[in-house]
UniProtKB/TrEMBL annotation:
It comes from Tachuris rubrigastra. InterPro entries: LRMDA, LRR_dom_sf. The gene is Lrmda. GO terms for biological process: melanocyte differentiation. It holds the Pfam family LRR_9. This is LRMDA protein. SUPFAM superfamilies: L domain-like (SSF52058). The lineage of its organism: Eukaryota, Metazoa, Chordata, Craniata, Vertebrata.
């Protein structure tokens, strides 16, 4: 397990066999770029600055799918991209579920997202409708 307070993630490329990486509380945004880490199975990005602005989160999730192909556990709690009714009164459980479908559509190998196990039903729904599940509500 690596604990990093980071400004740059460039040094991670020397840890190609890294399996778990905790990058919580680092002010990281959607422009996060990781080196290829083929053995990484656990990544936590809690309490950073990842959001669903425009297509930037899609780009980040596509990047993660490419550089961390073994990823099974991802946590994005405390980011704007992860809607949480306890933190923001405008968000509800439906918003969170749409977020899960969208992430699972992009990262098909995940077994856990945030604190919850990925169910068979969620995986099936993500395959069918996940691409259309960006969390946006009309005002």
């Amino acid at each position: 397990v690596a604990f990093v307070v980071c400004r740059s993630l460039e040094g991670l490329k020397t840890f190609s066999y890294l399996e778990e990486l905790i990058l919580d509380n680092n002010l990281l945004g959607n422009d996060l770029l990781l080196p290829r880490l083929p053995h990484l199975h656990t990544l936590t990005l809690n309490k950073n600055q990842i959001s669903f602005q425009r297509n930037t989160c899609k780009i980040l999730l596509d990047h993660l799918a490419e550089v961390v192909p073994s990823l099974q556990y991802l946590s994005l709690l405390g980011n704007i991209a992860c809607p949480n009714e306890l933190v923001c009164k405008e968000k509800d459980e439906d918003d969170y579920q749409r977020y899960r479908y969208f992430v699972l559509h992009k990262l098909t190998n995940l077994k856990f997202l945030d604190t919850r196990k990925v169910t068979r039903r969620e995986r099936e729904e993500a395959l069918v409708r996940g691409a259309f599940m960006k969390v946006v509500k009309p005002k």
